[in-house]
Specification:
This protein is an alpha/beta fold and 695 residues long. Helix content is 43%, strand content 16%. Strands 1, 2, 3, 4, 5, 6, 7, 8, 9, 10, 11, 12 and 13 form a 13-stranded mixed β-sheet that branches. The protein has a two-stranded antiparallel ribbon with strand order 14-15.
């Protein structure tokens, strides 16, 4: 009897354990699309081809032929050529404006005394010449200025001489020139231990007083430093030629047309230029190369009839970072009015294991609540689960069910992370208050070669490129083809992740509460409760966003409402847990349990619900800049902004579902430097007077 009972217990135990394992790993081992479609995307796409695109576009770093400025850039022509070969007859390069840019032409630095030797040549490594340098032909003595502090500069005679520094030329240039220097030689490197021949793609800004900057590698710079510190008098001849060129702002583009011409769009982008000097292989030729392959893969599969033409169109744009995405957005309001979301492929090709890096997905802020976060995150988890270490061995471990690698690439596991919002790239343009097409960024980080001469093709991994292509293509296609059934899957994914996100935030806050003192105890309790309020509002709004995929579906509405109720139940349960933890801590501290009592100002703020007016989207990108300086001054704000998070505050008014107090909670839950309730209220009152918000 006992033996049977024990056996039954073990069986049940194993069964339950298995179920628990499934329960825990479930979100990581399923895909939002059918296996067949996913497999087709994996099989058709190629990281090797994307790597060859990088080799074609960025075989060397940063120099550009003068003839490039008289027509379309080589990169623009290349992208359109590849797109047309892939069947995009509509592929073209849109011109969205004109710009002027600095361009290096030539630079040589020769030591003429006491030795005759060439120290630097632009033709050897373009990063040697700092951006912003002006033409020069000088012979001058070198003077060591160390870190280039004011004290070090004041301690030497720089009149008519060239300052040599281990600091960045951009920091040292202006004070050195003010002291009489005719140029700067720097061997600064952000990562000298990673790569002793790495030079930053940096420059100088001296206005009318600009001279020139020569960047040496740390390896060569140390030799020059030691000679100067030994008292050697060194004279060099520097001959520099630079130019200012007028350019078109070019945006190669193509479109996979949806089956419903009246349906919405998804936009994928990558920056092909960062300024018009040539930059690196990973930043950002890799994103642009991967985007070519995403477009080709989806178009080819659709053309062959292996996957259905999606209901919604998928648009691809290759842009100069910000310099192109901003005017493109301003000139294409009609397209953006029906754009659901954006996927931005920034630096996506880095060989992750060699750089101890990750492929990061950065989510939107709460001001852009949208299911794009959870769709992309789902595929990241799926890629991670099916591309672990056993891909390399396959011995004694579970099978790698969906390995994604390239012929010439690594067999590394997929190293990835899901992170909070990160700006500083083109998805910010789409996420702008005036655009409201929430954007996520996919990016490899950290990057030991970022903005340096070391950003060459050899740092890229065809396997990582392949995975980046699959993730972008799968995410975009899932949204583009989603109807009622697809929307239901996405909504369930959002709700599942919502519970996890709320639990993670609670765990963090309870940890802080556990370490509370009698002085900060009540404040930490209040923070924990308010953070749950903030996350609840965000998750409810995210679930609501799924309705745009099938707005007429009563069944989807019923599901979304039910899932929202589930999320509210999680919020209620978490609140009870926080209350219980608070009472326990109060007892251990010997203090009275805390209560949340709203101030009169908070009560007032909780009753005011600001809502964006139609004027916001009518204006489009940069609508906050339409607020006049006079109006800003009236409310005590300057043109740079009145608050730390003005853009986020404004975006939290979309839909009118958040009170001013809700907005305060959501700002506090996201940022380490939150704005006061008073400043948020004043800011919203200003936007109201500007006609951008109504209460």
């Amino acid at each position: 009897m006992n033996k049977c009972k024990l056996t039954l217990t073990l069986v049940l135990s194993l069964f339950v354990t298995g179920l628990m394992g499934q329960e825990y790993t479930g979100p990581f081992t399923h895909s939002l699309m059918s296996e067949k479609v996913y497999d087709l995307i994996v099989g058709e796409s190629s990281g090797d081809r994307a790597f060859y695109y990088i080799m074609d576009i960025a075989p060397y770093e940063r120099d550009r032929k003068s003839s490039d400025y008289s027509g379309l850039f080589m990169e623009s022509k290349y992208v359109v050529e590849k797109l047309k070969a892939a069947g995009f007859d509509d592929a073209t390069t849109a011109i969205v404006g004109k710009s002027k840019t600095w361009d290096g032409v030539s630079a040589e630095v020769w030591e003429v005394s006491p030795n005759t030797a060439k120290l630097a040549d632009y033709r050897d490594l373009a990063a040697i010449l700092g951006q912003g340098s002006q033409s020069a032909d000088v012979t001058a003595e070198l003077v060591w200025v160390g870190r280039g502090t004011q004290a070090e500069i004041d301690a030497v005679d720089l009149k008519g001489k060239i300052a040599v520094t281990e600091a960045s030329a951009g920091r040292v240039h202006n004070p050195a020139v003010k002291a009489g220097a005719v140029g700067i030689i720097s061997y600064y490197s952000p990562r000298p231990l990673v790569d002793p021949i790495q030079i930053p793609n940096s420059g100088i800004r001296g206005g009318d007083n600009a001279t020139f900057c020569i960047n040496l590698t740390p390896r060569d710079g140390h030799v020059l430093r030691d000679r100067l510190l030994m008292g050697e008098k060194i004279t060099v001849k520097a001959k520099i030629e630079t130019a200012t060129e007028e350019t078109n702002i070019e945006v190669p583009t193509c479109l996979i047309k949806g089956s419903d011409e009246n349906a919405e769009e998804i936009i994928l982008c990558a920056h092909l230029f960062e300024g018009y000097v040539k930059l690196g292989a990973n930043d950002n030729t890799s994103g642009s190369a991967a985007l070519i392959e995403v477009a080709r893969t989806l178009n080819e599969l659709i053309a062959r009839g292996e996957i259905e033409r999606p209901k919604r169109s998928i648009r691809f744009i290759w842009i100069p970072e910000f310099q192109g995405s901003i005017p493109w957005a301003m000139q294409n309001k009609e397209i953006l009015q029906k754009t659901l979301c954006n996927i931005n492929l920034d630096m996506v090709g880095l060989w992750l294991s060699k750089s101890q890096s990750f492929y990061c997905l950065h989510r939107t802020t709460m001001g852009n609540p949208h299911y794009i976060n959870d769709v992309a995150e789902s595929f990241y988890h799926y890629m991670g689960a099916t591309n672990k270490a056993f891909v390399a061995t396959g011995v004694g471990r579970p099978d790698a069910t969906k390995p994604v690698y390239s012929v010439t690439g690594s067999r590394d596991p997929f190293y990835y992370t899901i992170n909070a919002h990160y700006g500083a790239s083109d998805h910010e343009v789409f996420s702008d208050w005036g655009v409201q097409a929430p954007g996520v960024i996919m990016i490899t980080w950290p990057d030991n070669y970022y903005h340096t001469s070391g950003d060459r093709p050899e740092i890229c991994d065809p396997t990582q490129l392949h995975r980046a292509i699959v993730l972008a293509a799968a995410s975009a296609y899932t949204i583009a083809e989603a109807g009622e059934e697809g929307a239901a899957k996405i909504a369930s994914e959002v709700a599942s992740n919502a519970a996890k996100r709320m639990a993670i935030k609670m765990r963090h806050d309870l940890s802080l509460l556990n370490g509370a003192t009698s002085e900060n105890f009540a404040g930490l309790y209040r923070t924990a409760k308010f953070n749950q309020d903030a996350l609840l509002n965000n998750e409810l709004a995210t679930l609501a966003s799924v309705m745009e995929l099938a707005p007429a579906s009563a069944l989807l509405k019923e599901l979304v409402t039910a899932l929202q109720s589930n999320v509210k139940a999680v919020w209620t349960a978490n609140g009870k847990s926080i209350d219980a933890a608070m009472k326990l801590k109060a007892s251990s501290l010997g203090v009275t349990p805390a209560k949340i009592v709203l101030s009169a100002v908070e009560k007032s703020a909780s009753k005011i619900y600001p809502r964006s007016t139609p004027k916001v989207k009518e204006f489009g990108y940069g609508v906050l800049r339409s607020v006049s300086p006079e109006l800003m001054a009236k409310y005590g704000f300057n043109q740079r902004g009145a608050v730390n998070h003005g853009g986020e505050i404004a975006k939290l008014t979309v839909g009118g579902t958040n009170s001013i107090l809700d907005i305060k909670k959501m700002i506090d839950a996201q940022f380490p430097n939150p704005d006061s309730l008073e400043s948020i209220t004043k800011y919203l009152e200003m936007l109201k007077e500007a006609g951008l918000v109504e209460f």
